[in-house]
Amino acid sequence: MSSAGSCKMKAQISPSTLHGTIKLPPSKSMAHRLIICASLAKGRSTISNVAYSVDIQTTIEGMKALGAKIQCLEDSLIIDGIEDFHQCQASVIECNESGSTLRFLIPLFSLTEKKITFVGKGRLMERPQKIYEQIFQEKQLFFKQDSLGIQIQGALPSGHYTVPGNVSSQFISGLLFILPLLNEDSYIHIQEPFESKSYIDLTLQAMRDFHVHAEFRDDHTLYIKGNQHYQPCNMSVEGDFSQFAFFGVAAAINHDLHIQGVSHDSLQGDKQILDILKDFQADVKETDDGYMIRKSELKGNLIDLANCPDLGPIACVLGMFAQGTTKIIHAQRLRLKESDRILAMETELSKFGCQIQSDEDSITIIGGCHAPSVPLSGWKDHRIVMALSMACTVLSGTIEGAEAIAKSYPNFYEDCQKINMEVTLYDE
Questions:
Q1: H or E segment at 131?
Q2: Residue in 310, 340, 359, 381 annotated catalytic
Q3: What is the rounded CA–CA span in Å between residue 31 and residue 410?
Q4: Which CATH number fits domain 9-25+239-427: 3.65.10.10, 3.40.190.10, 3.40.50.720, 3.20.20.70?
Q5: Which of 113, 303, 378, 408 has a CB 3.0–4.6 Å from the CB of 385, allowing a cystine?
Q6: Which pLDDT does position 364 carry in this prediction?
Q7: Rounded CA gap, 100 and 110, in Å?
Q8: 310 is catalytic
Q9: Full-prediction pTM beyond 0.90?
Q10: What is the CATH number of domain 28-236?
Protein backbone atom coordinates (compact mmCIF):
# COMPACT_ATOMS: atom_id res chain seq x y z
CA MET A 1 0.00 0.00 0.00
CA SER A 2 1.22 3.48 -0.81
CA SER A 3 1.13 6.24 1.77
CA ALA A 4 0.21 9.84 1.17
CA GLY A 5 3.06 11.92 -0.14
CA SER A 6 4.44 13.50 -3.26
CA CYS A 7 3.61 10.62 -5.66
CA LYS A 8 0.21 10.57 -7.31
CA MET A 9 -2.19 8.16 -5.71
CA LYS A 10 -5.70 6.87 -6.21
CA ALA A 11 -7.97 5.36 -3.57
CA GLN A 12 -10.41 2.56 -4.38
CA ILE A 13 -13.08 2.36 -1.69
CA SER A 14 -15.68 -0.41 -1.33
CA PRO A 15 -18.87 -0.24 0.72
CA SER A 16 -18.29 -1.37 4.29
CA THR A 17 -19.86 -1.00 7.73
CA LEU A 18 -17.76 1.43 9.73
CA HIS A 19 -17.51 0.75 13.45
CA GLY A 20 -15.32 1.26 16.48
CA THR A 21 -13.40 4.21 17.85
CA ILE A 22 -11.38 6.86 16.04
CA LYS A 23 -8.92 9.16 17.83
CA LEU A 24 -8.67 12.46 15.97
CA PRO A 25 -5.41 14.12 14.94
CA PRO A 26 -4.40 17.45 16.50
CA SER A 27 -5.92 20.68 15.24
CA LYS A 28 -3.98 22.11 12.32
CA SER A 29 -5.43 25.56 13.01
CA MET A 30 -4.24 25.55 16.63
CA ALA A 31 -0.87 23.99 15.82
CA HIS A 32 -0.03 26.84 13.39
CA ARG A 33 -0.83 29.37 16.11
CA LEU A 34 1.03 27.66 18.96
CA ILE A 35 4.15 27.15 16.83
CA ILE A 36 4.18 30.85 15.91
CA CYS A 37 3.59 32.05 19.48
CA ALA A 38 6.29 29.73 20.86
CA SER A 39 8.70 30.99 18.18
CA LEU A 40 7.99 34.59 19.25
CA ALA A 41 8.74 33.80 22.93
CA LYS A 42 12.35 34.29 24.00
CA GLY A 43 13.21 31.06 25.77
CA ARG A 44 12.25 27.39 25.35
CA SER A 45 8.73 26.05 24.81
CA THR A 46 7.48 22.54 24.14
CA ILE A 47 4.48 21.89 21.89
CA SER A 48 3.15 18.33 22.20
CA ASN A 49 0.55 16.36 20.21
CA VAL A 50 1.87 17.62 16.85
CA ALA A 51 1.08 15.92 13.53
CA TYR A 52 3.48 16.67 10.68
CA SER A 53 1.14 17.50 7.81
CA VAL A 54 2.63 19.44 4.91
CA ASP A 55 0.98 22.66 6.13
CA ILE A 56 2.43 22.33 9.63
CA GLN A 57 5.88 21.45 8.29
CA THR A 58 5.65 24.57 6.14
CA THR A 59 4.96 26.81 9.13
CA ILE A 60 7.80 25.14 11.08
CA GLU A 61 10.25 25.84 8.25
CA GLY A 62 8.98 29.42 8.00
CA MET A 63 9.57 30.11 11.68
CA LYS A 64 13.02 28.50 11.49
CA ALA A 65 13.83 30.83 8.59
CA LEU A 66 12.75 33.76 10.78
CA GLY A 67 15.21 32.69 13.47
CA ALA A 68 13.48 30.19 15.76
CA LYS A 69 15.38 27.01 16.65
CA ILE A 70 12.96 24.11 16.38
CA GLN A 71 13.65 20.45 17.16
CA CYS A 72 11.07 18.08 15.66
CA LEU A 73 10.54 14.95 17.76
CA GLU A 74 8.10 12.12 17.01
CA ASP A 75 4.97 14.07 17.96
CA SER A 76 6.30 17.17 19.73
CA LEU A 77 8.40 20.26 19.13
CA ILE A 78 11.05 21.91 21.27
CA ILE A 79 11.16 25.57 20.26
CA ASP A 80 13.76 28.18 21.25
CA GLY A 81 12.27 31.51 20.32
CA ILE A 82 13.58 34.24 18.02
CA GLU A 83 16.16 36.50 19.64
CA ASP A 84 16.27 39.24 17.00
CA PHE A 85 14.23 39.60 13.80
CA HIS A 86 17.06 41.53 12.20
CA GLN A 87 19.30 38.43 12.31
CA CYS A 88 17.08 36.74 9.70
CA GLN A 89 19.22 35.51 6.80
CA ALA A 90 16.40 34.15 4.63
CA SER A 91 15.18 35.91 1.50
CA VAL A 92 12.78 33.35 -0.08
CA ILE A 93 10.07 31.66 2.00
CA GLU A 94 8.32 28.58 0.62
CA CYS A 95 4.65 28.45 1.66
CA ASN A 96 3.66 25.43 -0.46
CA GLU A 97 -0.18 25.47 -0.53
CA SER A 98 -0.72 26.79 2.99
CA GLY A 99 -2.79 29.96 3.03
CA SER A 100 -2.46 30.11 6.82
CA THR A 101 1.34 30.03 6.64
CA LEU A 102 1.51 32.74 3.99
CA ARG A 103 -0.92 35.13 5.66
CA PHE A 104 0.48 34.59 9.15
CA LEU A 105 4.10 35.05 8.07
CA ILE A 106 3.85 38.16 5.89
CA PRO A 107 3.49 40.57 8.87
CA LEU A 108 6.09 38.64 10.88
CA PHE A 109 8.73 38.81 8.16
CA SER A 110 8.01 42.51 7.65
CA LEU A 111 9.71 43.06 11.02
CA THR A 112 13.04 41.92 9.54
CA GLU A 113 12.91 45.02 7.28
CA LYS A 114 14.63 42.91 4.60
CA LYS A 115 13.28 42.24 1.12
CA ILE A 116 11.48 38.90 1.45
CA THR A 117 9.88 36.85 -1.31
CA PHE A 118 7.08 34.40 -0.54
CA VAL A 119 6.48 31.61 -3.04
CA GLY A 120 3.89 28.85 -3.15
CA LYS A 121 2.39 25.96 -5.07
CA GLY A 122 -0.96 25.00 -6.53
CA ARG A 123 -3.51 27.81 -6.34
CA LEU A 124 -1.90 29.57 -3.38
CA MET A 125 -0.72 32.64 -5.26
CA GLU A 126 -4.13 32.94 -6.92
CA ARG A 127 -5.83 33.26 -3.54
CA PRO A 128 -6.63 36.85 -2.52
CA GLN A 129 -3.84 38.84 -0.82
CA LYS A 130 -5.09 42.32 -1.75
CA ILE A 131 -5.74 43.17 1.89
CA TYR A 132 -2.04 43.05 2.71
CA GLU A 133 -1.21 44.87 -0.52
CA GLN A 134 -3.50 47.73 0.51
CA ILE A 135 -2.14 47.79 4.07
CA PHE A 136 1.48 47.91 2.90
CA GLN A 137 0.65 50.69 0.44
CA GLU A 138 -1.18 52.70 3.12
CA LYS A 139 1.84 52.39 5.41
CA GLN A 140 4.15 53.35 2.49
CA LEU A 141 5.90 49.97 2.50
CA PHE A 142 6.90 47.80 -0.45
CA PHE A 143 4.53 45.03 -1.59
CA LYS A 144 4.53 43.40 -5.01
CA GLN A 145 2.66 40.33 -6.19
CA ASP A 146 3.20 38.63 -9.53
CA SER A 147 3.29 35.14 -10.97
CA LEU A 148 6.61 34.45 -9.22
CA GLY A 149 5.34 35.26 -5.74
CA ILE A 150 4.92 38.09 -3.25
CA GLN A 151 7.74 40.49 -2.33
CA ILE A 152 7.64 42.71 0.75
CA GLN A 153 10.01 45.12 2.45
CA GLY A 154 9.52 47.35 5.46
CA ALA A 155 8.23 46.83 9.00
CA LEU A 156 4.52 47.21 9.64
CA PRO A 157 4.04 49.87 12.36
CA SER A 158 1.71 50.11 15.32
CA GLY A 159 -1.45 52.14 14.83
CA HIS A 160 -4.89 51.72 13.26
CA TYR A 161 -5.70 49.01 10.70
CA THR A 162 -8.96 48.51 8.82
CA VAL A 163 -9.59 45.03 7.43
CA PRO A 164 -12.61 43.53 5.59
CA GLY A 165 -14.29 40.86 7.69
CA ASN A 166 -15.51 38.63 4.86
CA VAL A 167 -12.36 37.66 2.92
CA SER A 168 -10.25 35.69 5.42
CA SER A 169 -9.71 35.98 9.15
CA GLN A 170 -6.08 34.98 8.53
CA PHE A 171 -5.18 38.59 7.70
CA ILE A 172 -6.47 39.70 11.10
CA SER A 173 -4.59 36.90 12.86
CA GLY A 174 -1.40 37.80 11.00
CA LEU A 175 -1.60 41.36 12.33
CA LEU A 176 -2.51 40.16 15.83
CA PHE A 177 0.71 38.15 16.12
CA ILE A 178 2.99 41.17 15.61
CA LEU A 179 1.15 44.22 16.94
CA PRO A 180 1.72 43.39 20.65
CA LEU A 181 5.48 43.37 19.98
CA LEU A 182 5.51 46.99 18.76
CA ASN A 183 6.10 49.94 21.06
CA GLU A 184 2.73 51.66 20.74
CA ASP A 185 -0.88 50.45 21.10
CA SER A 186 -2.84 49.40 18.01
CA TYR A 187 -6.41 48.87 16.85
CA ILE A 188 -7.83 46.58 14.18
CA HIS A 189 -11.18 47.75 12.79
CA ILE A 190 -13.08 44.91 11.13
CA GLN A 191 -15.59 45.84 8.45
CA GLU A 192 -18.95 44.07 8.22
CA PRO A 193 -19.85 41.39 7.48
CA PHE A 194 -17.47 39.81 10.02
CA GLU A 195 -17.16 36.09 9.27
CA SER A 196 -14.98 33.34 10.79
CA LYS A 197 -14.70 35.15 14.14
CA SER A 198 -14.04 31.76 15.74
CA TYR A 199 -10.61 31.70 14.09
CA ILE A 200 -9.79 35.07 15.66
CA ASP A 201 -10.84 33.62 19.01
CA LEU A 202 -8.38 30.76 18.46
CA THR A 203 -5.58 33.25 17.77
CA LEU A 204 -6.43 35.27 20.89
CA GLN A 205 -6.50 32.04 22.93
CA ALA A 206 -3.05 30.99 21.66
CA MET A 207 -1.65 34.45 22.41
CA ARG A 208 -3.08 34.33 25.95
CA ASP A 209 -1.42 30.97 26.48
CA PHE A 210 1.90 32.74 25.85
CA HIS A 211 0.95 35.72 28.08
CA VAL A 212 0.17 38.22 25.33
CA HIS A 213 -3.24 39.87 25.29
CA ALA A 214 -5.57 41.58 22.84
CA GLU A 215 -9.27 42.18 23.31
CA PHE A 216 -12.45 43.15 21.52
CA ARG A 217 -13.49 46.67 22.55
CA ASP A 218 -16.73 46.17 20.61
CA ASP A 219 -18.02 43.63 18.09
CA HIS A 220 -15.77 44.97 15.32
CA THR A 221 -12.78 46.56 17.07
CA LEU A 222 -9.72 44.79 18.48
CA TYR A 223 -7.45 46.66 20.90
CA ILE A 224 -3.83 45.49 21.13
CA LYS A 225 -1.60 46.95 23.85
CA GLY A 226 1.96 47.54 22.65
CA ASN A 227 5.30 46.58 24.17
CA GLN A 228 4.21 43.09 25.22
CA HIS A 229 6.44 40.01 25.25
CA TYR A 230 5.53 36.41 24.48
CA GLN A 231 6.56 34.13 27.37
CA PRO A 232 7.69 30.52 26.79
CA CYS A 233 5.39 27.74 27.98
CA ASN A 234 4.50 24.12 27.34
CA MET A 235 1.31 23.40 25.40
CA SER A 236 -0.50 20.42 23.88
CA VAL A 237 -2.41 20.82 20.62
CA GLU A 238 -6.10 19.98 21.02
CA GLY A 239 -7.92 17.58 18.67
CA ASP A 240 -9.20 18.82 15.31
CA PHE A 241 -12.92 19.51 14.79
CA SER A 242 -12.24 20.05 11.06
CA GLN A 243 -11.32 16.36 10.82
CA PHE A 244 -14.04 15.39 13.31
CA ALA A 245 -16.55 16.53 10.69
CA PHE A 246 -15.54 13.81 8.21
CA PHE A 247 -15.96 11.03 10.76
CA GLY A 248 -19.08 12.58 12.28
CA VAL A 249 -20.81 12.62 8.90
CA ALA A 250 -19.46 9.13 8.10
CA ALA A 251 -21.07 7.82 11.30
CA ALA A 252 -24.40 9.50 10.52
CA ILE A 253 -24.59 8.07 6.98
CA ASN A 254 -22.84 4.71 7.51
CA HIS A 255 -22.66 3.31 11.04
CA ASP A 256 -22.07 4.34 14.66
CA LEU A 257 -18.64 5.68 15.63
CA HIS A 258 -17.09 6.80 18.90
CA ILE A 259 -14.94 9.84 18.04
CA GLN A 260 -12.29 10.73 20.61
CA GLY A 261 -9.72 13.44 21.13
CA VAL A 262 -11.60 16.75 20.94
CA SER A 263 -12.29 19.22 23.72
CA HIS A 264 -15.94 19.82 24.65
CA ASP A 265 -15.17 23.49 25.32
CA SER A 266 -13.11 24.06 22.18
CA LEU A 267 -13.30 27.46 20.48
CA GLN A 268 -12.78 25.94 17.01
CA GLY A 269 -15.36 27.20 14.53
CA ASP A 270 -15.70 23.78 12.94
CA LYS A 271 -17.19 22.53 16.21
CA GLN A 272 -20.38 23.79 14.52
CA ILE A 273 -20.52 20.36 12.85
CA LEU A 274 -22.16 19.10 16.07
CA ASP A 275 -25.06 21.54 15.68
CA ILE A 276 -25.30 20.82 11.95
CA LEU A 277 -25.59 17.08 12.59
CA LYS A 278 -28.26 17.67 15.24
CA ASP A 279 -30.16 19.95 12.83
CA PHE A 280 -30.17 17.02 10.38
CA GLN A 281 -31.66 14.84 13.17
CA ALA A 282 -28.48 12.84 13.68
CA ASP A 283 -28.02 11.09 17.04
CA VAL A 284 -25.14 12.91 18.77
CA LYS A 285 -24.14 12.08 22.35
CA GLU A 286 -21.31 13.60 24.40
CA THR A 287 -18.90 11.12 26.02
CA ASP A 288 -16.13 11.68 28.55
CA ASP A 289 -13.47 11.77 25.84
CA GLY A 290 -15.40 12.94 22.76
CA TYR A 291 -18.71 12.08 21.09
CA MET A 292 -20.74 9.09 19.97
CA ILE A 293 -22.44 9.63 16.60
CA ARG A 294 -24.97 7.03 15.46
CA LYS A 295 -26.31 6.25 12.01
CA SER A 296 -29.53 8.19 11.61
CA GLU A 297 -32.43 8.99 9.31
CA LEU A 298 -31.20 12.38 8.16
CA LYS A 299 -33.46 15.26 7.13
CA GLY A 300 -32.21 18.05 4.86
CA ASN A 301 -31.76 21.46 6.47
CA LEU A 302 -30.09 24.86 6.17
CA ILE A 303 -26.30 25.08 6.75
CA ASP A 304 -24.64 28.47 7.29
CA LEU A 305 -20.88 28.38 6.57
CA ALA A 306 -20.16 32.00 7.57
CA ASN A 307 -17.99 30.88 10.51
CA CYS A 308 -16.93 27.43 9.30
CA PRO A 309 -16.11 27.49 5.56
CA ASP A 310 -13.87 24.40 5.79
CA LEU A 311 -16.97 22.30 6.50
CA GLY A 312 -18.25 22.97 2.97
CA PRO A 313 -17.23 19.72 1.20
CA ILE A 314 -18.38 17.33 3.93
CA ALA A 315 -21.57 19.38 4.41
CA CYS A 316 -22.35 18.64 0.75
CA VAL A 317 -21.97 14.91 1.43
CA LEU A 318 -24.27 15.21 4.43
CA GLY A 319 -26.90 16.85 2.21
CA MET A 320 -26.47 14.16 -0.42
CA PHE A 321 -27.52 11.44 2.07
CA ALA A 322 -30.34 13.43 3.72
CA GLN A 323 -33.99 13.24 2.75
CA GLY A 324 -35.35 16.38 1.14
CA THR A 325 -33.52 19.60 0.33
CA THR A 326 -30.35 20.99 1.90
CA LYS A 327 -29.29 24.58 1.30
CA ILE A 328 -25.77 25.74 2.15
CA ILE A 329 -25.36 29.52 2.42
CA HIS A 330 -22.44 31.95 2.85
CA ALA A 331 -20.35 29.54 0.79
CA GLN A 332 -18.59 32.06 -1.47
CA ARG A 333 -15.15 31.62 0.11
CA LEU A 334 -15.19 27.95 -0.90
CA ARG A 335 -14.37 29.15 -4.41
CA LEU A 336 -11.03 30.57 -3.18
CA LYS A 337 -9.56 27.50 -1.47
CA GLU A 338 -7.14 24.84 -2.76
CA SER A 339 -9.77 24.27 -5.42
CA ASP A 340 -13.04 25.94 -6.28
CA ARG A 341 -14.76 23.71 -3.74
CA ILE A 342 -18.26 24.57 -4.91
CA LEU A 343 -17.47 23.59 -8.49
CA ALA A 344 -15.56 20.53 -7.29
CA MET A 345 -18.41 19.17 -5.16
CA GLU A 346 -21.02 20.04 -7.78
CA THR A 347 -19.01 18.11 -10.37
CA GLU A 348 -18.22 15.08 -8.21
CA LEU A 349 -21.59 14.68 -6.50
CA SER A 350 -23.24 14.78 -9.92
CA LYS A 351 -21.30 11.58 -10.67
CA PHE A 352 -23.28 9.96 -7.82
CA GLY A 353 -26.52 11.07 -9.50
CA CYS A 354 -27.07 13.70 -6.81
CA GLN A 355 -29.13 16.77 -7.70
CA ILE A 356 -26.89 19.70 -6.83
CA GLN A 357 -26.76 23.25 -8.11
CA SER A 358 -25.05 26.43 -7.00
CA ASP A 359 -24.75 30.14 -7.44
CA GLU A 360 -21.89 32.38 -6.33
CA ASP A 361 -22.66 32.10 -2.61
CA SER A 362 -24.92 29.08 -2.03
CA ILE A 363 -25.36 25.39 -2.83
CA THR A 364 -28.67 23.51 -3.04
CA ILE A 365 -28.75 19.71 -2.77
CA ILE A 366 -31.67 17.32 -3.11
CA GLY A 367 -30.87 14.04 -1.39
CA GLY A 368 -30.59 10.82 -3.33
CA CYS A 369 -27.60 9.09 -4.94
CA HIS A 370 -26.10 5.90 -6.35
CA ALA A 371 -22.63 4.45 -6.93
CA PRO A 372 -20.64 6.44 -9.50
CA SER A 373 -19.84 4.73 -12.80
CA VAL A 374 -16.78 6.89 -13.51
CA PRO A 375 -13.73 7.77 -11.38
CA LEU A 376 -13.95 10.68 -8.97
CA SER A 377 -11.41 13.52 -8.92
CA GLY A 378 -9.83 14.84 -5.75
CA TRP A 379 -9.22 18.25 -7.39
CA LYS A 380 -5.77 18.41 -5.71
CA ASP A 381 -7.68 19.34 -2.54
CA HIS A 382 -7.39 17.44 0.74
CA ARG A 383 -10.92 18.26 1.93
CA ILE A 384 -12.49 17.16 -1.36
CA VAL A 385 -10.67 13.82 -1.16
CA MET A 386 -11.70 13.18 2.44
CA ALA A 387 -15.33 14.18 1.86
CA LEU A 388 -15.67 11.93 -1.19
CA SER A 389 -14.00 9.08 0.70
CA MET A 390 -16.75 9.12 3.31
CA ALA A 391 -19.45 9.03 0.62
CA CYS A 392 -17.71 6.04 -0.95
CA THR A 393 -17.92 3.99 2.26
CA VAL A 394 -21.65 3.73 1.48
CA LEU A 395 -21.66 3.73 -2.33
CA SER A 396 -18.11 2.72 -3.45
CA GLY A 397 -15.88 4.66 -5.83
CA THR A 398 -12.35 5.37 -7.00
CA ILE A 399 -10.81 8.75 -6.17
CA GLU A 400 -7.94 10.02 -8.29
CA GLY A 401 -5.48 12.47 -6.75
CA ALA A 402 -5.90 11.01 -3.25
CA GLU A 403 -2.35 12.09 -2.30
CA ALA A 404 -3.79 15.56 -1.54
CA ILE A 405 -4.61 14.36 2.00
CA ALA A 406 -0.93 14.89 2.92
CA LYS A 407 -1.64 18.61 3.17
CA SER A 408 -3.53 18.26 6.44
CA TYR A 409 -3.94 14.58 7.41
CA PRO A 410 -1.29 12.25 5.95
CA ASN A 411 -2.48 9.26 8.04
CA PHE A 412 -6.12 9.68 6.99
CA TYR A 413 -6.51 6.33 5.24
CA GLU A 414 -4.57 4.42 7.89
CA ASP A 415 -6.97 5.82 10.51
CA CYS A 416 -9.97 5.02 8.28
CA GLN A 417 -8.87 1.39 8.02
CA LYS A 418 -8.94 1.17 11.83
CA ILE A 419 -12.71 1.76 11.68
CA ASN A 420 -13.18 -0.79 8.87
CA MET A 421 -13.03 1.37 5.73
CA GLU A 422 -12.21 -0.97 2.84
CA VAL A 423 -9.71 1.11 0.88
CA THR A 424 -6.88 0.15 -1.43
CA LEU A 425 -4.33 2.78 -2.47
CA TYR A 426 -2.52 2.65 -5.79
CA ASP A 427 0.22 4.75 -7.32
CA GLU A 428 -1.22 6.52 -10.37
A1: helix 130-138
A2: 310
A3: 15
A4: 3.65.10.10
A5: 378
A6: 98
A7: 16
A8: yes
A9: yes
A10: 3.65.10.10
